[in-house]
Amino acid sequence: MPLSWNEIKTRALAFSREWAGETRETAEAKSFWDAFFNVFGLSRRAVASFEEPVRSIKGTYHRIDLFWKGRLLAEHKSAGRDLTKAKGQAFDYVQDLIREGRHSELPQYIVVTDFSHIQLYDLEAAERLVADFPLKEFHRHIKHFAFIAGYKQHTFAEEPAVNLKAAELMANLCDTLEDAGYPDHQRQIYLVRLLFCLFANDTGIFDSNVFDLLVTDSAPDGKDLGPRLAEFFETLNIPTDRRQSTLDESLASLPYVNGGLFADSLPVAHFNTAMRDALLEASRFDWSRISPAVFGALFQGVMEPRARRQIGAHYTSEANILKVIRPLFLDDLQARLKKAGANRAALERLHDHLASLKFLDPACGCGNFLVIAYRELRKIENALLASLYGTQGIVDIAHLARVDVDQFYGIEIDEWPARIAEVAMWLMDHQMNGDLAEKLGQYFVRLPLKKSPTILNTNALRTNWKELLPPKECSFIMGNPPFV
C-alpha cells in the first residue's frame, strides 16, 4: 500500500533540506535519486537504473542519467546549468528510443533537475510542462509525482482560482440543492460539510484525492452520489479504531475529524445530473488557492440580498480588518518579536503571552475578523518557533504550536455563518500548521480536532457577553457591528 500523502510530504520536506546547496552532479546525482525515490517509499534499484545506454541518430551511444522503463526518464545537471539543454537532451533520448524500436519502454514522464530546481514533463498531456519549482517547494508539488507513489492520477480541467469563481461554485451548489427541495436548515450544514471536504481534499487533510474520486466515480445521473456522500460524512465522524474492518479502503484512509462538524445526521441528498454536475465542477476547482479568510465572501455569494439586509450580514475586507487589528494588538506583538531577536528567554516569554490571549468578536458573521486575527497570531508564533528550533532536529513539532483556535470567541445570530466561522478557523489552522511545517521541516495535521473556537449562535444585543467570556479573561474585543 502506498505511503500516506502526509508521510510523503514529511519526507519531501526532509529531502529538500538535506539536498539544499548541493552542486556536484558527478559526485552526488545517484545518491540524490536514491533519496528522491525513498520520499515515495520506493527503492530506486527496484524500478530504475542509472546510465541506460541509448543509440543516437548519429550511431553513437549516449547514457540516460536515470531510466524507469515505461514510466520515467531523468536528466541531471550540476547546479546552475541550463535546464533547457537538459530538457532537450531528455526529449532527444525519447526519440532515440523510438528509433531503436523500444516502444514498450517509452516513458510518460521526464524530470530534469540541477539539484536546486526541478521540472516535470508529461508527454501525454496537452501542456507538457506539469511542474516547475525550486527544490525547497518540492512538498507543495508532491502530488504531481503520484505516479511514483503508486496513486492513480486523475487529470481535472483547469479553473481560474479566483474568489469570484469559488463564490459562484458555492452558489450553484446551494441553488441545485434548493431546487431539489433539500430542507433549508440541513442544506446550510450540508454545504458547510461540502466546503470542508473540497478544501480538505486539495490541502492534504485527505489523502490521494479521495473526495474528488468519490464524485468523479459516481454514476453520471447522480443517483448513487447522495448515499456515497452520506457514508463519507459518517466515516469522518467515526474514530479510526472504531470503524468496521470491512470498510472500503478509500473510506478507511479518511482521518477522524471530530469537532462536531459531521456529528448530526442529515437527510440523504438525492442527486440528479444537474446536482452532480454542480459538485463535479466544484471538485475540479483548486480550493487550496482559496484562503479561509475569504470564506465570508463565499457565504455572501450563496445568500439572497434580501436575506443579507434582514440579518445584517456584512463582509469586511481583509485590508479593513488589518486596519483594525494592527493598532489594536498586532503592531505591538510584531515589535516584541523583532526586539526579542534570537534571545531565547524573550522569545519564550512572548510565546507564553501569545498562548494566553483571548479574542472576542460579538458580531462575528462568518468569522473574518477571527480568522485573520488567528492567522496573524500564528504567523508570529511560527516565526518565533523558527527562531527557537529552526536549526534543531525536532521529533514532533505538533506540541510546539501553542496558539490554537480555542482562544477565539464569537457571537452570531444565524447558524450557518456561525458554522462557516468555525470551519474557517479549523482550515486556517491547517494552513498555518503547514507554514510551521515548512519552517521546521516536518509535516503534520492537527487531527482529530480537539479544540474549537467558541461561536455562540444567538443575538449579541440580547446576550450577556460576560457569560461567554469573562472580562478578566478577554484580551481584545474587535469586529464590525451589525447594521440594519
How would you characterize this protein structure?
The strands form two sheets. The chain has a six-stranded mixed beta sheet, with helices on both faces. It is 47% helix and 11% strand. The protein is globular and about 85 Å long. The chain has helices at 5-19, 25-39, 44-47, 83-99, 146-149, 163-179, 184-203, 210-216, 225-236, 249-252, 273-284, 295-301, 305-311, 318-340, 344-356, 368-389, 415-440, 465-468; strands spanning 49-55, 61-68, 72-76, 109-113, 117-122, 129-134, 359-361, 408-412, 454-457, 476-477. Residues 154-161 and 308-312 have low confidence and may be disordered. The protein has three domains: 5-149, Alpha-Beta Complex (tt1808, chain A); 163-290, no CATH class; 316-477, no CATH class. The longest helix has 26 residues, at 415-440. It contains 18 helices and ten strands. With 484 residues, the chain is of the alpha/beta class.
